[in-house]
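dumping this here so i dont lose it again. seq + smiles for zinc ion
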Amino acid sequence: MECMRCVEEIEAHLECCPDCRKVINELAALREEINLSIAGIPIPTNLSVRILSAIEKEQQNTAKDIWLTGILLAVFASPVLLLFSRTFSSVFHLAYLTGTAFWRSLITLVTFISPWVTVSVGILSLFVMAIGLYIIKTLLTKFEVNEVIV
Ligand SMILES: [Zn+2]
């Protein structure tokens, strides 16, 4: 349904605007060209059935994706729920206390050892760590793990 007032307005504009007239003429020519080019092509008899079934399939896949996303969110959020569990909190607190006790014992022990020994052990551990990282890097480069991953 066309609004006659709008049609009159547009036609009046087209009469005095060469740019819009040019666009309208190009669109009409394009439309004519498309009509001529598809005139000889037969439309497959089951085309609408195929399109509708493809749309239905896509909608089912979307529903499946929504379910999958929900399940994944629940799986990843479940550890947070553990924090509200009294038993888990107790176990976590016990582990924390054990770690703290271990840390305090270590600090107390270290105060009895000569500072030079602790500094030397620290430097030695950094050195061993650097050598270990270098060995890992060499192994990774040697076996060209990067290419396997890509
Ligand atoms: Zn115009």
